[in-house]
Specification:
two-stranded antiparallel ribbon; 8% strand; 13 helices; mainly alpha; 6 strands; 374 residues
Length: 374
């Protein structure tokens, strides 16, 4: 800490013409006086610096009034800095001064130890104790919820109900009654089908008191966030919307058995659409029938549905399931191929891809002889 210029004889800035007192008594008296004054100056300046420091910390904030003894629920987001947490505490009336709390954290070197979560704090609590609580961790428990890729919206709601204790009907009502919003809700689609593919599959952490609305809205928001991270310009340049990209991604998710096949399956979809061919994808027909995990019969191919891609050209009206990030990326950036056929040819889920129908038939027949596929 600097207290101002201090001149010494060996200092190049020391003034050579500075007067010297020759009288011994005067020299002693002046020396003692100078020491006393200098010491008092040091103390005064140190105190001033300390007070000034507090002033600097608090100069940009208003000290808030705190009503002691109230219990307040405070949420500390993941990644919050000590300064951010101090602001949250002050905004919620837990502490009087964010800057003072921040200085306590700094002195204790506890900035990296403060934990995110939801806390029940009592207003007016000693700052040291609040730091201890934040270092110990949240007082309100959390739970994890997993939404699996490839699930249809009804299946996904059933999964959420099992993991939360909320009923399927309660969750369904939230979606149907307009309680949840999404930028990708399609026009002209009624019922739960409008929400197909719009609740992103991932593992989430929620506070134990999370409401159905909070849970569903977070899944919907995550879909928007993941979609925003994808470069969709090539898709738009080809005349498709981002929502149609989501539809394609859901088909890729339903059809792909290994990650390497995702961009290849996407290329087949785009090539068929470009040539005006029906997609002829079994997964869309099974979606129309409300079934899974079996081969199609000739009767199945007659189902009157916009999801019957053997009879209807173009994409189905909505996604057919939730799609993972890898399927979204494949839909946005498909492989460049001339393939228009593929067939399952390996027990590990891998497909073989073809441009010619005869080659496709040969591979399909061989797979059937080996007991692979249907």
């Amino acid at each position: 800490m600097s207290y101002g210029p201090e001149y010494r004889p060996d200092d190049p800035d020391y003034p050579e013409d500075r007067p010297l007192f020759r009288v011994r008594g005067a020299v002693v008296a002046l020396t003692v006086a100078a020491v006393v004054v200098y010491g008092l100056t040091l103390v005064g300046r140190a105190a001033g610096d300390w007070v000034g420091g507090l002033g600097r910390f608090g100069a940009d904030e208003d000290v808030v009034d705190v009503q002691p003894g109230r219990t307040v629920t405070v949420e500390v987001p993941v990644g919050s800095s000590a300064r951010g947490i101090a602001g949250i505490l002050a905004d919620n009336g837990v502490i009087r001064s964010a800057s003072t709390f921040e200085s306590v954290v700094r002195v204790r070197e506890a900035g990296s130890l403060l934990k995110a979560g939801r806390y029940e704090l009592v207003t007016g609590t000693d700052l040291e104790e609040i730091v201890d609580l934040l270092v110990a961790g949240p007082t309100i428990e959390t739970f994890r919820l997993t939404a699996v890729e490839g699930r249809r919206v009804g299946e996904l709601l059933a999964d959420i109900a099992r993991q939360t204790g909320y009923s399927e009907s309660e969750l369904t009502s939230m979606l149907l009654d307009g309680e949840i919003s999404s930028a990708f809700l399609p026009e002209g689609v009624d019922g739960l089908a409008a929400w197909e593919g719009l609740l992103f599959p991932a593992t989430y952490e929620f506070f134990s008191d999370a409401t159905p609305e909070e849970i569903l809205q977070r899944l919907a928001n995550e879909t928007e966030r993941r979609m925003d991270r994808i470069e969709w310009q090539p898709l738009r340049s080809s005349g498709f919307s981002e929502y149609e990209g989501l539809v394609i991604a859901s088909i890729v998710e339903a059809e792909a058995g290994i990650d390497e096949d995702r961009p290849l399956i996407a290329s087949v979809i785009y090539n068929r659409l470009d040539q005006g061919m029906p997609l002829e994808i079994d997964a869309t027909v099974l979606y129309a029938l409300g079934e899974r995990g079996r081969g199609l019969t000739f009767a199945d191919l007659e189902v009157d549905s916009g999801y019957n891609t053997y009879r209807v050209s173009g994409l189905p009206p909505t996604p057919i399931a939730t799609a993972s990030s890898k399927s979204l990326e494949a839909a946005a950036d498909p492989a460049e191929t001339d393939y228009i056929f593929y067939v399952l040819t390996s027990e590990d889920g891998a497909h073989s891809f073809f441009a010619e129908y005869e080659d496709f038939l040969d591979a399909r027949d061989e797979a059937r002889r080996q007991g692979i596929g249907t």
